[in-house]
Amino acid sequence: MNIEVQSQKAINISSDILVLGFFDEMAPPRGLAGEMDWLLNNSLSLLIKSGKITGRFGEVVLVSSVRTKTSKIFWVGLGKKEEFNHARIAQFAPDLYRRLEKLEVKEAYLDLWDIEGCQLDFSSALNAFLNGIFENKKSSSLNRNPIDLTFHIRDQERVRDLNRFLKDLDFKSKVSVGAKG
After folding, report:
1. Residue 132 is part of a domain; what is its CATH number?
2. What distance in Å separates the CA atoms of residue 38 and residue 153, rounded to the nearest whole number?
3. How many domains are contained in the chain?
4. Strand, coil or helix: 171
5. What is the pTM for the complete model shown?
6. Nearest one of 12, 41, 14, 13 to 28, comparing CA atoms
7. H or E stretch including 158?
8. 132 Cβ neighbours under 8 A, 6+ residues apart
9. CA 101, CA 141: separation in Å to the nearest integer?
10. Which domain holds residue 118?
11. Distance separating the N- and C-terminal Cα atoms of the chain
12. Where are the beta strands (DSSP E) in 17-59?
């Protein structure tokens, strides 16, 4: 499992899947989700407007596109912005990871909390997400078919420092611990 941080425009992202979070009270969506919504002719906004999706916590919608480098887009409902916190991130991380495993994804680009209006610190949110995956014993295929995860951050100046930090972590030992039992 490789984990890194990047700052790319939605149109430039090339991955097996793009995982984009959006809050239920935000229409149109913001951040990378907003960029992708615009590239896909407001497909997410139209689903929200029609009432087919709301952005409630845990809601997921998989769409495909031939208009982008990444053909699979996974919209993830984050719930109410004021209720979104580290505990919520740790709660949905294992389920999201299992869904990516079922889709046989080898690499995923995620923007789940670096959204305009979200008050979470990027590093601590990333830590909550990874702890949620590693501590959940149901992610049994972590050591067989690990998924490379790239997390989006708006602040391009922090990319190098965060990647240096991530490189120093020993994910192989965490993966083998998290995959037992």
Report:
1. 3.40.220.10
2. 19
3. 1
4. helix
5. 0.86
6. 41
7. none
8. 89, 90, 91, 92, 93, 94
9. 8
10. 3-178
11. 19
12. 17-22
Closest CA to 62 of 118, 23, 20, 28: 20
Rg, Å, the chain Cα set: 15
Cα dist from 170 to 49, 61, 62, 166, whole Å: 44, 32, 32, 8
- In 54-158, alpha helices (H): 86-102, 122-135
Given the structure tokens 């951050």, which residue do they identify?
153
Segment (H or E) for 60: strand 60-64
* Calpha distance 3→8 (Å, rounded): 16
Question: What amino acid occupies position 70?
Answer: T
CB of 133 closer than 8 Å to CB of 110: no
Strand ranges of the sheet holding 60-64, from the earlier edge strand across to the other edge: 3-6, 148-152, 107-111, 17-22, 72-77, 60-64
Which token pair is 47? 């689903």
Q: What is the pLDDT along the chain (181 residues), one digit of tens a residue?
A: 899 999 998 889 999 999 999 988 766 788 888 899 999 999 889 988 998 999 999 899 999 988 889 999 999 999 998 899 999 999 999 999 999 999 999 999 999 987 777 788 888 899 999 999 988 755 455 556 789 999 999 888 889 888 888 887 755 445 433 333 3
Sole residue written with tokens 């952005």: 55
